[in-house]
Amino acid sequence: MCSIFHADILSDLPYNRYNIPELAKKYKVYAIDLLGFGWSEKALVEYDAMIWKDQVVDFLKEIVKEPTVLVGNSLGGFTALVAAVGLPEQVVGVALLNSAGQFGNANSEPEKSDEETVLQKFIIKPLKEVFQRVVLGFLFWQAKQPARIESVLKSVYKNTSNVDDYLVDSITMPAADPNAGEVYYRYVKISLQHACHVLLSFVCIVQMREK
């Protein structure tokens, strides 16, 4: 029996540096970073849940090759669920910590939109993307500042003495990768698109009930 940890933005090994040694006394433990996060490659691809699911499933098939419990934090929790569904014969359990992330049904047909007008295609759409890149670029720059990272970590860690230079550096160093900002933009953009779709569906349901 083995366990696999996979986290979100944090690199998995520093994030679980106190959990892994204890679990390793009884189990074989792997800690992997999802593509685009932590110490993994900052690949310039279109990110969605199926990319991370395939990464975990391939790792289980090619490296682990034995019954496994998946442990996921935040987006890693969502990834653990879809990976478990994708490989039920090997995954015997999942543990979700602050699980988050929804990207819709990977098997659903893409929504058909009305034909774009010249104004939408050459003016509105490019301006929208520029605006998104400027705003998200600033937010990423702000979020990766060491003082900001330390402040956020101390707000969520019960024992703030665990928030040391090693933990802060495990976030700031991957964030310094030349492609990190672009990966952040692509990930947040798809998350916002899904959130807007869910919000719009909720508004439509409310309006229908009011009628």
Automatic annotation (TrEMBL):
One of its GO terms (molecular function) is chlorophyllase activity. Keywords: Hydrolase. Residues 12-141 form the AB hydrolase-1 domain. GO terms for cellular component: chloroplast. Gene3D superfamilies: alpha/beta hydrolase. SUPFAM superfamilies: alpha/beta-Hydrolases (SSF53474). InterPro entries: AB_hydrolase_1, AB_hydrolase_fold. It is an enzyme of class 3 (hydrolase). Its EC number is 3.1.1.14. This is Putative chlorophyllase. It comes from Rosa chinensis (China rose). The lineage of its organism: Eukaryota, Viridiplantae, Streptophyta, Embryophyta, Tracheophyta.
